[in-house]
Amino acid sequence: xxxxxxxxxxxxxxxxxxxxxxxxxxxxxxxxxxxxxxxxxxxxxxxxxxxxxxxxxxxxxxxxxxxxxxxxxxxxxxxxxxxxxxxxxxxxxxxxxxxxxxxxxxxxxxxxxxxxxxxxxxxxxxxxxxxxxxxxxxxxxxxxxxxxxxxxxxxxxxxxxxxxxxxxxxxxxxxxxxxxxxxxxxxxxxxxxxxxxxxxxxxxxxxxxxxxxxxxxxxxxxxxxxxxxxxxxxxxxxxxxxxxxxxxxxxxxxxxxxxxxxxxxxxxxxxxxxxxxxxxxxxxxxxxxxxxxxxxxxxxxxxxxxxxxxxxxxxxxxxxxxxxxxxxxxxxxxxxxxxxxxxxxxxxxxxxxxxxxxxxxxxx
Length: 364
Ligand code: SF4
Known about the structure:
Elements: E1 7-11, H1 18-26, E2 33-36, H2 52-57, E3 59-63, E4 70-72, E5 86-88, E6 91-92, E7 97-98, H3 103-106, E8 113-116, H4 122-132, E9 138-141, H5 152-155, H6 157-166, E10 171-177, H7 183-186, E11 194-199, H8 203-209, E12 210-211, H9 216-228, E13 232-240, H10 246-260, E14 266-273, E15 275-276, H11 278-287, E16 298-300, E17 306-308, H12 310-326, E18 333-335, H13 340-347, H14 354-363
Parallel strand pairs: 1-2, 1-3, 3-8, 5-9, 9-10, 10-11, 11-13, 13-14, 14-18
Antiparallel strand pairs: 4-5, 6-8, 7-12, 15-17, 16-17
Bound molecules: iron/sulfur cluster (SF4).
Iron/sulfur cluster binds next to strand 7.
């Protein structure tokens, strides 16, 4: 196990679940385990902790999810040109600690790392989705409120997921990660239905802001390994951070990527600028006061978020898009949480409808 845990709490009705059994078997002996009739209290901030959000990341709660697993991407909005992504919430929070992570705000009141013991119930929701929309294809990801693979050596959830999606023609699973935890993946046959995506940042951002993540070189090496094992791969350049030398560093990063992963084998790329609500910016700066990446030139935008000064942001988008265009492969690309006008400025054409983009990315 690569990440430290201070404690594990198991909700009573989940004690005999397959997930709890696997986790408790794989857990280091010195991690205390508590059984609780109702785990809701254990998901709250650790009282008296100097950094309650950070402490929550090291407290694993195995509980039953009582609300739907499948939701439209919470970042979606009529203001943005969206990508039609569907989110499958099988876990909440992440053992890594990126200074810019939106979970610092989104999960401030429930920061414990939760994994849902009844996660296979989500398969019924997915089958209903597919049955009700025959002929359509959907891209479904587990990496929105958690990293898809961070604790996979402990939970092995990826194995059940891959088996399920491998047998569904019109559903594509996206596992999104900043780790190199691919052991379970390499033992499975995804039958072309599983896409693994990595968020990539230059070394300067990794060192300054992406604590406990795998290095960019390790992420690229992991991508190459899963590609060779039959998975599709994709890459997110999000958040793009406009620091001095950013343009040079991002281009070097793309060179490293393309030296290892042929452009024709990249299913898609996405880009998104650094964006933070005032509350997130306050939380991030207070938890990471020495991180220069949080202190760039930003302005409060009309959606209520601080965003990198628009000319700097657009220039970075265009530089990256141009670099991918030059390699000659038609790599599908989209922008996350940007309006249609920015999409048009970067790619020279208006974006397609979210459902159309979603289908295109799902089919590959
Ligand atoms: S890896 Fe992703 S989910 Fe985890 S802390 Fe970083 S940004 Fe947040």
